Amino acid sequence: MTDAVAQRYFRPFLARDVTASAVARELRSDLNRVLYRIRTFLAAGLISIVREEPRRGRAIKVYRSVHDAYFIPLEITPFGTLEDRLMEAALEELRERIRLQAKHMALRGLSGQRLFRNALGEVWTTSAPDAALDVDAADVDGALGSRPEPHSARGSDFWSDIYLTEAEALGLQRRLWAELEAFEGRHPIAERDGRPALSAYRLNVSLVRLNRE
């Protein structure tokens, strides 16, 4: 349950009834790989078959987690410290995100990097196609450490140290949660009947107080 890949395959079964084919579609994974995970989870007592839906030929099995929630104490995990556990989970997600980010950047020719100071005195690192790029007008979305352009939603990944009061930090955290909650409960759908398609995006936000003393 602490392995990032295993947990990815387990999450679709948590507190809901679901079939193997539905999980494969949701995770965009090979059905045989999902079935392998199902056998593993069944053997471990993590999921159970809640019913079988009849059809011509073999019945469709419906699975669900044995419990609706799980708590995994640090002391029974293979990690020595909390930092080790967080690092293991973060690295798996980071590898996938960087792979996708590099793919999108390469398609747009953003293979170089520019370091500059803007009019406000802030230092930014942006991905760029060449040295002659006009930084202010550049389409730099998807560049690590860059400021995203508001007109583009193809992908943004940026970070910066900001200076806030305790009240401002709490207010920012609440606004970020409110924005996220506005899109809860959605699933990918294709464009049809005039309705725009819903595509999957990865949102990764971290607001952490820095202690550098």
Structural features, described:
With 213 residues, this protein is α+β, with helices and mostly antiparallel strands. The chain contains five helices and five strands, in the order H-E-H-H-E-E-H-E-E-H. The chain has a three-stranded antiparallel β-sheet with strand order 1-3-2. A hairpin with a 5-residue loop joins strand 4 and strand 5. Helix 2 packs across helix 3. The longest helix is centred in the middle third of the chain and has 26 residues, at 82-107. Residues 135-153 have low confidence and may be disordered.
Write a brief structural summary:
The chain is built from 5 helices and 5 strands; from the N terminus they run αβααββαββα. Helices cover 33% and strands 13% of the residues. The strands form 2 sheets. A 3-stranded antiparallel beta sheet has the order 1-3-2. A two-stranded antiparallel ribbon has the order 4-5.
